[in-house]
Amino acid sequence: MTALNAFTHLECSMTGARVDAGRAHNLSPKGWPLLARYDLEALKRTADRDAIAARNRLTHPGFWKWRELLPVADDDHVTSLGEVDTPLIETPHSAHQLGLAGQLLVKDEGRLPTGSFKARGLALAVSMARRFGVTSMAMPTNGNAGAALAAYGARAGMQTWSFCPADTPEVNVHEIAAQGGHVFRVNGLIHQCGALVGALKEEMGWFDVSTLKEPYRIEGKKTMGIELACQLGWTLPDAIFYPTGGGTGLIGMWKAFDEMEALGWIGSERPKMFAVQAEGCAPIVRAFEAGEEHAPEWLDAATLAAGIRVPKAIGDFLILRAVRASGGAALAVSEDDIERVRALCGIVDGLLLCPEGAAAMAAIAEARRRGLVEADARCVVFNCGSGLKYPLPERVRDLDRTKPVTRAMLEG
Ligand SMILES: *Cc1c(COP(=O)(O)O)cnc(C)c1O
């Protein structure tokens, strides 16, 4: 898997202070997320985007093909479970219903190992943790991150510990355990689970891999932006609708766009970034509307879309800056909208979204109503996990085969 490794150092996302990357890190000395930096000048001379994109899928599966823009230097640390490039799927009938005449593309991240895009981030976090000799990792999780942590951790021979809010989807909790993770249901929300990890990590010897408290998950998530540009012939769409919890993916893609521009892979155009949340947990939307840089904790957070039920995001200012710089917006959608769009896309376009993906798609209608995207815009929605991981509405009827079954009964 040899590739020029251009990773140079970490940088505090708030102060810009440089931090040596030679050991495992959580937050910066001032308590903010750390971002990985690369020698883009050196890479620009050698990194040919098309040659990299054409790499052998067996030796460089999925996002691992972008090794030049990833922090893992040593092949022996690469932890892989058969990653794939996730497809961009057109959903023309849903687009029409949502008031969009332009192309609507769903990037279906449910095709990744463990059925969600958390695989991108945790593959990188686990691979880097290996480099630093970490043997035990812990995190609070609404389910998908814990599943990816457990799977990649098992692959790397590490112990993993996941703490889930009690109403995390059943399949997620069991999936974590089935992939070798220690998992606990906690009677609280994700930030309260995070507080447990913080309080116990020293005694337990854990490395904390909470969202944005660890610098490399975002490097995995940024590959969504590179892959998207590559799939669109090194262009970007007019708008991206992203279901936003901790915001890693949105921040990561925004970072990837800048890195690709510095390499001459894309131009200076950017999509409008829409951070989509549920009305029952919309701290970023509230801060966006108030013109604030930070988003205070949302109380009594509630939504079926568990992955975006994040009452307080440590990277709030990075999400808000990207959304504002892009000319996009933070939008909230109702639970009814989420259910309606999940049903719509499944029925008219044959694509079962997860509730978070349905929330992102539902926001297109709101963006159109407010005139934030043109009718003929090309929009990309991120469906971040497999729709099969969530409880589905009961729409099945029973049939008694011992009595006459008539056409009227079937069609009635
Ligand atoms: C984690 C998650 C999100 C939110 O992702 P962030 O990048 O942390 O904002 C959205 N949808 C699903 C299905 C998730 O698992």
Automatic annotation (TrEMBL):
It is an enzyme of class 4 (lyase). Its cofactor is pyridoxal 5'-phosphate. GO terms for molecular function: L-serine ammonia-lyase activity; pyridoxal phosphate binding; threonine deaminase activity; threonine synthase activity. Coiled coil: none annotated. The keyword Lyase applies. Residues 80-385 form the Tryptophan synthase beta chain-like PALP domain. GO terms for biological process: isoleucine biosynthetic process; L-serine catabolic process; L-threonine catabolic process. InterPro entries: Ser/Thr_Dehydratase, Ser/Thr_deHydtase_PyrdxlP-BS, TrpB-like_PALP, TrpB-like_PALP_sf. Signal peptide: none annotated. This is Threonine synthase.
